[in-house]
Amino acid sequence: MITNNGTTYTAKMHYILRQYWVDETDDKIKSYAMFGGGPELLLTILLLWLIFVVKLGPNIMANRKPFVLRKTLMVYNLMLVVINVYFAYTAAKWLDYGFKPLFDRLPARNQWSDKSVAEIPDKIIYFYTKLFDLFDTIFFVLRKKSNQITFLHVYHHFITPILAYMVLKLCPQTTIFEIVCFVNSIVHTVMYSYYLLSAFGPWIQPYLWWKRYITRIQLLQFVVYGVALLMAIYYGQYNEHPIALQWLGTGQPFVFFYMFYRFYVNSYNKNKVQ
Question: Which sequence ranges are marked TM in the entry (predicted)?
Answer without folding.
Answer: 41-61, 73-92, 124-142, 149-168, 174-197, 217-237, 243-264
